[in-house]
Amino acid sequence: MEVSKYPKYTFTWLGGLVLLGGYIFGSIIIGGMMVLWDVVCRESIQDKEWFVMVANAVVFISMIAAFDFIMVRPTTKKKLSFNFSPANFYTYFLIFPMMIGMMFIGEFITAQIPTTGPFFGDYYKFFEQLMSKLTDDPVIMLITAVVMAPIFEEIIFRGIIQKGLINKGVEPWKAILFASVVFGLVHGNPWQLVGAVLLGCVLGLVYYKTKSLLLPMLLHAFNNLCSSILIFYTKTESFADAFKVSEWVIAIIGIILFSLFYYLFTKKYKVHYSEI
């Protein structure tokens, strides 16, 4: 029997607390940076275009490092590492249309969530203001959304949480769903939650089947790149607005794309992947 070079760690409530502790520690570092910058430079670091990018990187790295040094290395005697092997061309041919289909479905469902009214109206305005800060500088936005977020988020949600649950003996579909729901909840608003949960399920399925974290990272980056392009050119992050069609058309196309390529990827494509 071949022994994997990757650590076989598990994810439990304790691992969740460690990730939370890493988040808090990273946030404390950011708080210290803010105070130091204010004293030395006499200005607010939060006004810098790159602040959110740096803050996210510090927090994510703190979370991953905390899980590595507290949960992985003491129990497995190995450092936290993942398989980033590329797949063959046919795999990419199947997973990208499947991802696009789910992106269309997610957009349709999200479009049904109100953006006006006593609660949703105020919340949506706050959400728009928050997002506008991230889109002031296109270069910073692309680095943050298309490069950093896919790498760090896939390591945490698919690499640590989903894989750790499966290693613990949790059924794969339950581990994929749990990691996807948590992934959606951390976005902190209902308009991104739905899409994040649905897309998280696709990312989790691809990771589970291919055993390579590279593929969900590429899919995640593709999704965020499409969202960034839509924001730049339509201001609404909507495929329906970009193509001048109804959301129902987007939904129907999404269902057809996802159903067809999900079937081909999971039922017809008989390729065995291993993580050695």
Instruction: Give the tally of β-strands.
Output: 0
Report the mean per-residue pLDDT as an integer.
91
Roughly what fraction of the amino acids lie in strands? Answer: under 5%
Number of helices: 10
> Could you estimate the helical fraction of the residues in percent?
over 70%
Element-level helix/strand string: HHHHHHHHHH
Largest sheet: none
Molecular shape: globular
How does the helix and strand content classify structurally?
A: mainly alpha
N-end to C-end Cα span: 11 Å
Radius of gyration: 20 Å
As residue ranges, the low-confidence spans are: none
Q: Could you list some keywords that capture this structure?
A:
276 residues, 10 helices, 75% helix, mainly alpha
Structural account:
By secondary structure, the protein is mainly alpha-helical. The protein has 10 helices and no strands. The radius of gyration is 20 Å and the shape is globular. 32% of the residues are buried. The mean pLDDT is 91.
Give the topology, please.
Layout: H1 13-41, H2 51-76, H3 89-111, H4 120-134, H5 138-168, H6 172-185, H7 190-210, H8 214-234, H9 239-243, H10 247-268
Compact overview of the structure:
The chain starts with 12 loop residues before the first helix and ends in an 8-residue tail after the last helix.
